[in-house]
Amino acid sequence: MSAHSETSATERPGAFDIGIQDLAWTALAVLVIAGLGHYADSAWIPAGIAALFAFATVHAYDRTTRLSVGAIGGLSALFVVKMWPAVAAVTSAEPFVESSTVLSWLIGLPLGGAVFLLFMPRQAHGLLKNLTLAIMGLTFAASLVLLGAVMGSGYHFDQNVAWIPQFGIRYHVALDGISLWLVILTTFSVPLATFVSFGSVHTRIKDWVFALLLLEAGMIGAFVSLDLFLFYVFWELMLIPMYVMIGVWGGSDRIRAAVKFFLYTMFGSVLMLAAILYLAYAYGQVSGTPSFDYFELQRLVLPRSTQVWLFGAFALSFLIKVPMWPLHTWLPDAHTEAPTAGSMILAAVMLKLGTYGYMRFCLGLFPEASIEWGINLAAVAVCGGILYAALCAWQQTDLKRLVAYSSVAHLGYVMLGTFSMTAAGLEGAVLQMVNHGISTGALFLLVGVLYDRRHTRQLADFGGIASQMPVFTAMFIVATMASVGLPGTNGFIGEFMIITGTNASLRLGHFAGIQAVGAALGVVLGALYMLTAVQKVFFGPVTKKENEGLQDMNSRELIGIAPLVAFIFIIGLAPNLILQSVSGATTRIIRDVNERLDASPPPDYHRGEAKLLNRRPEAPPAPQTALAAVAAETK
Amino acid sequence: MLALESLFPNDNFGLLGLIIALPLLGAIVNGIWGRRLGKQAVTTMALTVMGLAFATALVTVLHLREVAHAAGHGERVRLAWTAWEWFHTTGGRSGANIPVDLRFSVDQLSGIMMLVITGIGFLIHLYSTAYMAEDASYARFFAYLNLFVTAMLVLVLGDNLVVLFIGWEGVGLCSYLLIGFWFGKVENAAAGRKAFIANRIGDFGLIIGMFLIAQYTGALDWDGIARNAQQLLAPSAGARVHLWPVGGGVYQGIWSFLQPVHPLTISGATAVSLALFLGCTGKSAQLPLYVWLPDAMAGPTPVSALIHAATMVTAGVYLICRLNFVFILSPFTMTVIAVVGALTALFAATIALVQNDVKKVLAYSTVSQLGFMFLGVGVGAFAAGFFHVFTHAFFKACLFLGAGSVIHAMHANVHDDVASQDMRNMGGLRKFMPITFATFAVSTLAIIGTPFTSGFFSKDEILFKAFTSHAVHPFKEKFAQRGLGVWQQPTWLGPALYVVGVIAATMTAFYMCRALFLTFFGEFKGWTVGDAPAHASHGHDDAHHDEHAHAGPAPAPRESPWQMTLPLVVLAVGALFGGWLNAAPFHFEPLGEWLEPIFEHSVKAGVEAVGGEEHAHHLMWPLAAGGVAAFAIGSAIAYWMYIAQNGAPAKKLAESNKGLHQLLLDKWRVDEFYNATVIGVTEATAETCAAVDQGIVDGLFAKATSSSVAAAGFVLRALHTGIFHAYGAAMVLGLGGIGWFFIAPHADVSVNEKSGAWTVQAAPGMGYAYRWDADGDGKFDSERFSELRALTVTVEPGKSKQVRLEVKNAFGLTGSTTITVGTEAKKAATVVGLR
Question: Which ipTM was obtained for this model?
Answer without folding.
Answer: 0.90
